[in-house]
## 1
Amino acid sequence: MMPFHRTCKEVTALVIAREDHVLPWRDRLALRLHMAICAACPTFERQVLTMRNAMRQWRSYEGLETPPGNADKPPN
């Protein structure tokens, strides 16, 4: 087995782990090499980034006091 070869399952675990901490250089290199040759894993990585950005936006969402469509109704 090649020292930097990772399976898709291992790479998805690295993509998730990268959200929590900085990966060692060997794992970063293996991740990069795998992403260059795999068609599916970059798609998974984009999905993780999309979810992370959506969660960041959700956390900063302040919400409306009156739900849309109920603006013309008086409060109870």
Note: The radius of gyration is 20 Å.
## 2
Amino acid sequence: MDLHGGNIYRLQREGLDEILDYSSNINPLGVPETFKKVVMENFHILEKYPDPEYVALREAIGKYNNINYKNIIVGNGATEILFLYMKSLNIKKATIVAPTFAEYERALRISKKEVEFFQLREEEDFILNVDRLLEEIKDSELVVLCNPNNPTGKFIELDKIDRLSKELEKLNKRLFIDEAFIEFVEDWENKTAKLLERKNIFILRALTKFFALPGVRLGYGISYDENVLKNMENNREPWSVNSFAEMAGISMLEDKEYIKATEEWIYEEKKWFYQELAKIDKIKVYETKSNFILVKLLEDKAPSFREKMIKEGVLVRDASNFVYLDESFIRLAIKDREKNKRVIEKIRRTVR
């Protein structure tokens, strides 16, 4: 099984050219026109190396987040930032709140850290129980969580994050928060952990999901700990962000029309898609704050359901390889209304 969604290339090699990819959580509005225009007008930039300190890019990201650019580090996708952070920490053990993104564990193990998991329980609707987490972490020096969480779509409100980070701070522990999907949350600017400005918090962000640019690798981290950022910069390869990715960040973050259109789409569509899926017998649907939905199959298994849906022309994410999820679970991306209607009908036919 693929570790992540989005491997349509394998299906294409097998002769399936027409496929709706509902395994990959990318903005269906596509690449912003502002970025396309900037690329066409600035091909000459490829003749020069990027700024090794990426000051203009970091300033654009800082303006977007209303923070000083010196609190920002950029990388070749959020994955590079994730691996850099884990490599730069002088710790022995970390706790990952799961089910969640698999690369956290890989980054920790490659960095020679011990890993344990804290389970988000299905009977608690996969919502984080902070009290239970604080009781169980014991000798871990770092807590890793995704907010909103992939694949559950659940979001931890800022007051909970505040309390958790304060308690961890008392114990000299750190908190890593992946906010790659936070822009899909209503009023996210007032809910991000960035507002806490706490040294023991590191925040991971990506442009991949919201701005529909998985092929242009650009991610960034936010930290108020100068030593952490310094260690990461010392470990980072030079010029890891290419010139087109740099242009993408500088241009797209000011594209207010695209941002507004995306917000209007996701706020309405995730509610509609959830409500329509919830009407289908033989599945259980979990309400989401992000641009994907976790679904439990009540009478089928994810591998066989995935194969049936491929025959219907739809690729869904088999979620059974997430820690603590079994073969009952799949994950669906949220696309535009026309595609979502087609997928709803195909699911209805498949679960009969």
Note: The mean pLDDT is 93.
